[in-house]
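Office hours follow-up: a student asked to see two folded examples consecutively, so here they are.
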Amino acid sequence: MRIRGSRTAIALGVGAALLGGGIAAGPAASAAQSAAAHAPPTAQRLVPVEGTANFRDLGGYRTYDGEKTRSGVLYRSEALNKVTPNGVAQMAALKLKGIVDFRTAAEIAANGPDKYPAGVPNTNLAVSDGGLMTTLYAVITSGDPVKQEQILGNGRAAQLMVDMYRTFVDDPAIRAQFAATAKGVANGTVSLYHCSAGKDRAGWMTAILLTAVGVPTGTVNQDYLLSNQYLKPGNDALKQQLLASGRMQNPSLLDPLLGVDQRYLDAARAAIDARYGSFGKYLTDGLGLDILTLVKLRQRLVT
């Protein structure tokens, strides 16, 4: 995320970016270390696009039947608002078919529109944060450590994230956006999707697609948790700035929001079990993906 000058702009930028943030503490940090140890090398996972830190290729993952997801077909990322001219050229070399931006209008207004190669369709399929950005804006701009502790401390920040992940499954408007993206991927019109920092909405979209084409759950989890590793430097810098500006005395309160945690992914899966009984039923009944679409997904994403 871009570090802004004024305190208000910093807070608004943080609020938008926290909808898809970076480094985690405690269990998430140790889980990220485990994921990094078992995931493909960074050089094979990250895609060099100047101005991004979490732009990834979804190729190279083994499926249950021994096949492998294709490289150079589908990518996930954080917002593209900081992509440099050289980064745009690097993206052009990927020959993208289309981009989906999951950010809300407020996030785009706070942090800026995407920068990407001319001629590539870019569709905004906004996924609501359930009021998280508004809450964070109020918390950070208050500069009140007591209020910040009351809202984010003692597990409450993590609960905000768990609640948001449940809406990914339970909210019909949100399901429609993920479904439209999955159909675009299957039809070959979408080859990149992103949110603010590429970890939550992009993370769940990735979990949907990898699971749908037969990538084992453990591998899906590892891919999800890699965001902690790749976004750590930027998140550390952000927390230092908030501390130095006096807006927060304890920026570590933000860790559950800036990171990904296995509990968040598990919360979405639990919501699927409760509502649909199985992931397969979620794909067909929840997202409305018919068998032909699922077959096309497999054909496009798996060798």
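And the second, which I mentioned at the end of office hours:
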Amino acid sequence: MPATPLNPTDLYDIRSMLSDEERMVQDTVARFTDERVLPIIGDCFDKGRFPTELIPEMAELGLLGSSLPVEYGCAGMNGVSYGLVCQELERGDSGIRSFASVQSSLCMYPIYAYGSEEQRKRWLPEMAAGKVIGCFGLTEPHGGSDPANMKTNAKKDGADWILNGAKMWITNGNLAHIAIVWAQTDEGIQGFIVEKGMPGFTAQEVHKKMSLRASVTSALFFDNVRVPEANRLPNVKGLKGPLGCLTQARYGITWGPIGAAIACFTETTEYAKNRTLFQRPIAATQAVQIKLADMARRITLAQLLSLQLGRLKDKGVMQPTQVSLAKWNNVRMAIDIARECRDILGGAGITTEHCPIRHALNLESVITYEGTETVHQLVVGREVTGINAF
């Protein structure tokens, strides 16, 4: 019997390793991306607009806080399903995945993991429904890779806290109804739920971006903001709080860029089959075939890496170093593929009529945020040598 042709974007038939529920999640989000995201996202990127009209639909599909328990209005998906959500959303655009990632892993997760039961019941159902949007305030203007050096502080004042400081590069900042803000206190770093409208709390959108243009990025400012004790996350102190959130978000990021790479690879492969130079399609040349084959190889390796990471997560044994390795590998894979695809497209590749330049520009942010490539390399280096080089 002749061999069955392989799927160029799934050469190792990873889909067969997914459960029926995981395949259903992937198909549902893929359909949403194809029908609702892709028709508008190029224009949104050009205009620097986040498509807020998609938020209710994402909520309806259970994509906000998707891996949190159903008792809080969430979908209760496993880790692999959440990863597939990220992959399919980022196949559309990193900005769409970033919105869902911040809402889910950086805002809803800390309320669930570190908050009181009252806080969970108050906020999580509304956030899952897309009626309350959150942002995550950790990075500060003077530097992001050393969060222990934060200047933002909160001081006790009777039954309240007085918050002062600033945060920078905050996804969803000007969309948000609440901000999960991390601040130095006399008892170490603690988290606070800061609500929009609290006197002294302002958000300022960052403009002139060449990356993540279909995403809202902001600076947050806190000038003697009075935060009630009831808004303090009571169940964590120290850096392990925000770093635990980042581990959750970085896990999703290991999957997301796979989607960006697949989008670039698929479009460029079709272009190469139809672009004729010197009386034959450029896909018939060894130079282009070698480039496309190498992309398929790197996508396959990234898929296997994230799938195994997801299985470890669902067993409860995933380690932060393993997340760092996958974030480093997979984002580097995607940005290199996006740039190579842009090159194969030639002059056509510099416009947002084709997706590679948009993904390449977005991935310049993804490779930097939530741990730069260098930071993740050093995390792995520390693991293999036992020596901290930070």
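Two things to take away from it. The first helix runs from residue 20 to 47. The longest strand covers residues 160-171.
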